[in-house]
UniProtKB/TrEMBL annotation:
SUPFAM superfamilies from the UniProt entry: Zn-dependent exopeptidases
Domain MurNAc-LAA: 139-242
Organism taxonomic ancestry: Bacteria, Bacillati, Bacillota, Bacilli, Bacillales
Keyword field: Hydrolase, Signal
Organism name: Paenibacillus amylolyticus
Keyword Signal attached: yes
Protein name, entry field: N-acetylmuramoyl-L-alanine amidase
Length: 248
């Protein structure tokens, strides 16, 4: 948690670099008032709720895939962990700019398994996944959005894919994000049940995994590596989350 609070200062310095979303992008949601939560990461969901009115904004947990020794997938020298972090930071700032309470579990290039000193397991991967799940339990989280990049042996596989739990709210969250990303990528992909994935099996809150594109596809890789396009990808993810929260 110390890394989270320390690194957030550097992240927030870059906040002015992101454009503020126009009102219509937020699907009609009013701009935050002067009483909106601060731009610092919310680390105690219960405290946040107790200090606001009964309809306080839900708490969103952004799970940044991989990190540190775990680079994730890669192609042509582009590492998934770097793409995940760049896009997740932008989603975080966009949501915070609209007044949403957001937690991001990685703000630098390190493995979350390094912070897990409570699970007696030799598997670094298991400790990493358990640490991600643990944060969703320690904080009063409403939804979990895990951000990743995809890979396929077929170079023509492209576009975003959102995976969901076998649960109705998770499905609706996935569909909202998928629809927003399909508009950006001009694709018609459907959501997918993420049956084998740890996060989707063990996180109790509605959770989804957002595969922002295929690093194995040249066009997707170029888009995902471009900071301007990363902002557009982040904006589509934020739009999907906001739309879901406005109707559920």
């Amino acid at each position: 948690m110390y890394k989270l609070l320390t690194a957030s200062v550097a992240l927030l310095i870059s906040f002015h670099c992101l454009p503020i979303l126009p009102h219509h992008v937020a699907h009609g949601k009013a701009a935050p008032s002067q009483n909106s939560p601060s731009m610092l990461p919310v680390t105690d969901g219960d405290a946040y709720r107790s200090s606001h009115h009964a309809f306080a904004a839900p708490v969103i947990l952004l799970d940044v895939g991989h990190g540190g020794i775990d680079g994730g997938t890669s192609a042509q020298g582009v590492l998934e962990k770097d793409i995940n972090l760049a896009i997740s930071q932008k989603v975080y700032l966009l949501l915070r700019s609209k007044g949403y309470a957001v937690i991001i579990n990685r703000l630098g290039d390190y493995a979350l398994s390094d912070e897990n000193r409570w699970l007696n397991s030799r598997s670094r991967h298991t400790r990493d996944l358990a640490q991600r799940k643990s944060l969703s339990e320690e904080v009063s989280t409403d939804i979990v959005v895990s951000i990743h990049a995809n890979w396929s042996p077929r170079s023509n596989a492209h576009g975003p894919v959102v995976l969901h739990q076998k649960e109705g709210r998770s499905y609706l969250l996935a569909q909202s994000i998928q629809d927003a990303m399909n508009k950006l990528y001009e694709t018609e992909h459907g959501v997918v049940w993420g049956k084998p994935f740890y996060i989707l099996n063990y996180v109790k809150q509605p959770a989804v995994i957002v595969e922002t594109g295929f690093l194995s596809n040249a066009a997707d890789r170029t888009r995902m590596s471009d900071p301007t396009e990363q902002k557009r990808i982040a904006q589509s993810i934020a739009n999907g989350i906001i739309y879901y929260l406005s109707v559920v």
